[in-house]
Structure formats: structure tokens, C-alpha cells
TrEMBL record:
The keyword Repressor does not apply. Transmembrane segments: none annotated. It comes from Symbiodinium necroappetens. The keyword Calcium applies. SUPFAM superfamilies: EF-hand (SSF47473). This is Nict2 protein. Keywords: Calcium. InterPro entries: EF-hand-dom_pair, EF_Hand_1_Ca_BS, EF_hand_dom.
Length: 133
């Protein structure tokens, strides 16, 4: 039953994506959502995933990894399949830990880059005879 529900959402998402992709580019933009947000199929789709059309515009901006103002069908499908109602506490906790982990790793990487560029002193180096240089 759950598998059938997901398949149904994918089919609906494909139809709505094609309707939103007015220029046939294979991606949709915030502008295309604005232009078609009031059509019955689009309204019904966003309502079925508990997303207001204005929220959809923000989701497009968040999912736009290329920062070109567009998302492809795979990213749009994330809206269709993954979003359904309010997030659970466990969803928020997992997100918090993912962001925290990313922050720790990126801070360590930034520090490594600064040391490599000579912008920050690194740990003391040992010469071949074992003395600190």
C-alpha cells in the first residue's frame, strides 16, 4: 500500500512538473511556479504534500544546488515524496546532527586550508634529526 502511494505521488509529480515546465527546458524555476501556482492540478499537488505554493517557491530555492534558479525533476520529486505534513521531532534531530557534523568538518577543512596557505601557524614541524623547527 505504501509502495502504491509513492508510485501515485511520482506519477502526479511528473504530471505537475511537466505542467510547471512551461518552456520545456527539463527544469522548473520559481517564475514558472508563480505563473502556474493557481492551476487546479498544481494546487491539488501541493496540497497533497501539505506545501503551500509560496513555500514551494522557497523549496525550489533551497533545492537549487547550482544556484541557477531552476531544479530538475529529481529534486522536484523530493518535494513530492519526502514532504508530507509537518516534520517529526526525529527528522529535526537528524537534520540538526547533519548540520552540526557538516559544520565541524568544514571548520576543520577551513583550518587546514588556512595552515596550507600560511594564514595561520600550523603545528610545529620536526626536522629529520627530531628537533622542532
Amino acid at each position: 500500500a505504501a509502495d502504491l502511494k509513492i508510485r501515485s505521488r511520482i506519477v502526479k509529480a511528473r504530471r505537475v512538473f511537466q505542467e510547471l515546465d512551461a518552456d520545456g527546458s527539463g527544469s522548473i524555476s520559481v517564475e514558472e511556479i508563480r505563473e502556474h501556482a493557481s492551476t487546479p492540478a498544481v494546487l491539488e499537488f501541493f496540497e497533497s504534500v501539505d506545501v503551500h505554493p509560496e513555500e514551494a517557491q522557497h523549496l525550489i530555492e533551497v533545492l537549487d544546488m547550482k544556484d541557477d534558479g531552476n531544479i530538475g525533476f529529481e529534486d522536484f520529486l523530493e518535494i513530492a515524496v519526502r514532504l508530507n505534513g509537518m516534520p517529526k521531532a526525529s527528522d529535526l534531530l537528524m537534520l540538526y546532527h547533519e548540520v552540526k557534523r557538516f559544520h565541524v568538518h568544514s571548520a576543520a577543512e577551513m583550518n587546514r586550508i588556512k595552515i596550507a596557505l600560511g594564514l595561520e601557524p600550523g603545528p610545529p614541524a620536526l626536522s629529520s634529526d627530531g628537533s622542532i623547527t
